[in-house]
Amino acid sequence: MTASTAVVKSAGESRAMSNPYVKQWLDECITLCQPDKVVFCDGTPEERKRLFQEGLKTGDFYELNQKKWPGCYYHRSNSNDVARTEHLTFICTPSEDMAGPTNNWMSDRQAYAKLKPLYRGCMKGRTMYVLPFVMGPAESVLAKVGIELTDSLYVAASMSIMTRMGNVAWDVLDKPGNANAFTRCLHSIGDVNPDRRYICHFPLDNTIWSFGSGYGGNALLGKKCLALRIASYLGRQQDWMAEHMLLMGAQAPNGEKSYIAAAFPSACGKTNFAMLIPPDRYRDWKVTTVGDDIAWMWVDEQGKMRAINPESGYFGVVPGTNSKSNPNAVKSMQKDTIFTNVALVTLDDGTYDVWWEDSDMPAPAKALDWQGKEWTPASGTKAAHPNSRFTAPAINNPVLDENWDDPAGVPVTAIMFGGRRSKTIPLVFQSFNWIHGVYIGATIGSETTAAATGAVGVVRRDPMAMLPFIGYNIRDYLVHWFHMRKKMTDCPRIFLVNWFRKDEKGRFVWPGFGENMRVLEWIINRAHGRAYAKETPLGWMPRPEDINLEGLTIDKSDFVKIQTISAEEVKQEIISQEELFLKLAGDLPKEMLFQRELLISRL
Ligand code: OXD
Ligand code: MN
């Protein structure tokens, strides 16, 4: 540690220093990064307030009008740093085979050697925040501790919303045998230069090094980096699964409660679906949220799959969020929320408001856009970045599930896969069995969105919606999915949905939003062995009479249309899956090949 670093004494500091592994790693990182000051965060609401106040001085935060937006702040990231950068994200292992064909790979030694010079002295003149956090309820069998060292005040405040932060983490590490069981997360925004931006994962060292980005999954290292990439690797070692899935509860009028996990690629409406409000006709149903982005799942002693949400907040896409599309998200962001990269509006009294495209509010006459540039409705540009986000505590959600924080997790009745597909893929069908379900999940495709940099609107294969998040070889990941079945006495039923199918005029056929409840009802009834389905080449499908269409603008013949399977289109789909299969070359698990052959023979 350099003599010029001032370590702020606190309870957190003494707890950190009492753990020899933490102390040694901290000393190394402080020596490397040379911060002026080290602050140990405790994750309390009072501390978050102090961080916001500090951020007002540094320019990291703007305070929103506190009457309208109590406890809410605004942050703008660098305009070159507004989405996860998958091409700069690496799995760093001794052999390339460990990372597999779908990840960017760097040798671990090479990665350390490349990044060390970037970190050297990068925190001079800055404060290093030490963020101890737990992913998952601390008493859960799957709870994992991480410690993030960051020079971003915004990241410190955001992590205290998104994770369980503070003493709770030191307490877990203090349990016998746990002292070294933490993910070492080193983060610096550096000079926010995309040419010197690296998001590196070292699964063998339980370590993450992120440099040069201050936004979202690149910087809040508990989320995609730890809870998906590192956790998926740990899950394979330890017989559990880390998945890019929302988790929701659905309570039927007779009181029966089912839990559903659903994997949709980024920005395909996981948050909206997890907070769904049943339409009037379903007012006796209750839908509740356990999580909106990540599920960790394991098999309990009875052989049943259970799941927890490792996060404690939402990092949701803002544009398009309004009282129609997602009233519960609107309510979740009403207080104690950070808005990033939306438009900033100055009110008559000089205080600030926020705005985004398709919000409940009409466009303001003028605003500062996501880049801080003057904007008017005539500008012809988006005021809010399409990937602008709200960071809100889970406890703000009016439909938070009563068991969301239960260390025992929730039982999983059904797993849904989905994507954004304008044609070919029907609204809903059920797999014939687990192996077929894994094949369906492994081959889902989705039209790309703004959540990652790159072209928008092209179909990309996104196995289990995990393509950018599998922390090891996809071959072993698929084998792990097949293997998990063998641990279960009975398994969740697996379904595919596509809310986004369009007609010949390019209009969405299915009304979506709350009406997705109708599909959910069929899924739940199928999973409990109560609903009819007919066998088709793709899987088990509801007939129009098996889904409640009452009161909808679409009728039975429209329903038949969105369920139509065109043999020609499915053949094209199989051909376009080849791209992914060829990447795996000789490594494709045999179950995948058999399932593809069976599908072809059914057509
Ligand atoms: C997210 C994503 O931010 O999937 O959740 O990109
Ligand atoms: Mn996500």
Please tag this protein with its features.
binds oxalic acid; 603 residues; alpha/beta; ten-stranded mixed sheet; Phosphoenolpyruvate Carboxykinase, domain 3; Phosphoenolpyruvate Carboxykinase, domain 1; single chain; binds manganese (II) ion; globular; Phosphoenolpyruvate Carboxykinase, domain 2; six-stranded mixed sheet; 3 domains
Layout: helices, strands, pairs:
Elements: E1 6-7, H1 11-17, H2 20-33, E2 37-40, H3 45-58, E3 62-63, E4 73-75, E5 89-93, H4 96-99, E6 104-107, H5 108-119, E7 127-135, E8 144-150, H6 153-162, E9 164-165, H7 167-174, E10 182-188, E11 198-202, E12 207-211, H8 216-219, H9 222-238, E13 241-243, E14 246-251, E15 257-263, H10 270-274, E16 286-291, E17 295-299, E18 305-308, E19 313-317, H11 327-332, E20 338-340, E21 343-346, E22 352-355, E23 367-368, E24 374-375, E25 389-393, E26 410-411, E27 414-418, E28 428-430, H12 434-442, E29 445-447, E30 459-461, H13 474-487, E31 493-497, H14 516-527, E32 534-535, E33 540-541, H15 556-563, H16 567-584, H17 590-602
Parallel strand pairs: 1-2, 2-7, 4-20, 5-6, 5-11, 8-10, 10-12, 15-27, 27-31
Antiparallel strand pairs: 3-4, 7-8, 7-9, 11-12, 13-17, 14-15, 14-16, 17-18, 18-26, 19-25, 20-25, 21-22, 23-24, 28-31, 29-30, 32-33
The structure holds oxalic acid and manganese (II) ion (MN).
Oxalic acid binds at residues 84, 216-217, 266, 293, 315, 451.
